[in-house]
């Protein structure tokens, strides 16, 4: 059974939605921005309650949520599936950032020290369902992914001696993000070899 906080979050979210609906004729950009920020906060808190509930259950069926869709595969190549699009740089302090960071850390924790004393290349592909093909990939922040990997100690830190990265944007009907981690030395040599051609 989910705790009282879950119900409180739903009540607060309901009030926020009702306020927006009752005042839709006088809403301005600031009101809408505040509502969206509040919505992210409620989403994060609700998912957090589910995560806490799932971690405390032993004999009960766990509750599926978006957090349940985070997946790691490791068969020579380390891959992470994130069922969300990365937030924009300007929203670095929001709850989407915190949610992705915590879930990346949680789903990769069994791979602690996998890249200890190694430099890695983190390749990130962001899939959005925007129809236009000219959205800006450089507006997305990779920080929650990197911070999650550092938190779970999959990589030692995000200094230049331990990691570098590249990011590509793509289209998919289902928005998500895919992360692949390579041995940085091998990837660096491949880049140097192909640049010199």
Give the averaged pLDDT, no decimals. Answer: 85
β content, as a range?
15-25%
**Strand numbers in spatial order across the main sheet:** 1-2-5-3-4
Record field, number of beta strands = 5
Secondary-structure element pattern, one letter each: HHEEHEHEEH
Number of helices: 5
Helix content: 40-55%
- Please report the distance between the alpha carbons of the first and last residues: 62 Å
List low-confidence stretches.
none
Tertiary shape = globular
* Largest sheet data: 5 strands, mixed
Spatial extent as radius of gyration: 19 Å
SSE blueprint:
Elements: H1 4-22, H2 29-56, E1 71-75, E2 77-82, H3 95-108, E3 120-128, H4 143-151, E4 163-171, E5 176-183, H5 184-195
Question: What are the main properties of this structure?
Answer:
about 200 residues, alpha+beta, 5-stranded mixed β-sheet, 5 helices, about 40% helix, globular
């Amino acid at each position: 059974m989910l705790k009282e906080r879950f119900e409180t979050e739903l009540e607060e979210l309901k009030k926020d939605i009702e306020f927006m609906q009752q005042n839709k004729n006088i809403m301005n950009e600031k009101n809408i921005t505040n509502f969206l920020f509040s919505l992210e906060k409620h989403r994060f808190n609700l998912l957090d309650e589910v995560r806490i509930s799932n971690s405390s259950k032993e004999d009960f069926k766990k509750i599926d949520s978006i957090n349940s869709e985070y997946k790691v595969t490791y068969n020579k190549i380390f891959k992470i599936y994130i069922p969300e699009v990365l937030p924009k740089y300007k929203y670095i302090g929001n709850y989407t950032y915190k949610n992705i960071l915590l879930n990346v850390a949680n789903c990769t924790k069994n791979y602690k020290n996998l890249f200890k004393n190694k430099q890695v290349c983190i390749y990130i592909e962001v899939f959005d369902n925007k129809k236009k093909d000219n959205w800006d990939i450089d507006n997305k922040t990779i920080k929650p992914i990197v911070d999650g990997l550092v938190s779970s100690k999959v990589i030692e830190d995000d200094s230049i001696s331990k990691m570098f990265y590249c990011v590509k944007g793509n289209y998919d009907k289902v928005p998500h993000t895919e992360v692949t981690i390579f041995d940085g030395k091998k990837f660096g040599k491949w880049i140097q070899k192909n640049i010199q051609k």
